[in-house]
Give the backbone structure.
Amino acid sequence: MIRTIVCGLGGQMGQRLANLIFQSEDLELVGATERPGSPLLGRDIGEACGRLATGRKVSADLASIVAGAQVVIDFTAPEATLANGPVCAAAGVAMVVGTTGMKPEQVATFQRAVQPVACVMAPNYSTAMNVLFKLVEEAARILGDDYDVELTEMHHHLKVDAPSGSALRLAEAAARGLDRNLAEVAVYGRQGQVGKRTKKEIGIHAIRAGDIAGDHTVLFGTPGEYIELRHHATSRDAFARGALRAARFAVQAGAGLYDMGDVLGIK
């Protein structure tokens, strides 16, 4: 059994991860964390997920429970993930990180901290979405500069960062296929007299509504036709199952930084 810790047990992803681990035949939930002040602190991790008691309590301190674990799965917040990285590195425990909204300097700091261990870090853990990343890059390469590129992403109204990490990865894939620098051509939404669309720009738009788990569309359009490549997540299980697949990969991998392309063998 792969001894696993879930950070952020009270979150929607934390709950799905934990419950799928309980259902798994090769993963064991040996610990879980929550933020200070959470009503789950001190509760049994099984009972906190609507299951039988395990004898293990939800903790606010990863360092106090990490010993003996093989992998930590972290879908929390940038500050929490930055704190958890050095803890896992010191304990020699692999990580799977799905935290979004991290600034470039935070990502760099985190990646330096986890160099001693295997760490899978990805903006989206859905298997199908990671296939879409590849398809978008290839479509952009084939269609070329004659086709305008526009991205739309939709998420639930509780999501705090925009655009989503997955939308940015899709935009990066399109830019690579077109041999463009995304930082130079990205346009985030439009308002007012914006003028004629430039040939090179890549539009990125965010929608927040209801309980949408995740919806990403990349449109390539030229006069006379357009094509859409779309991924629609019907539940968070798509991401949670991918993260568990990444956890299985991480415990077998050597020290280093990986993403879902490595996990799926499609880089």
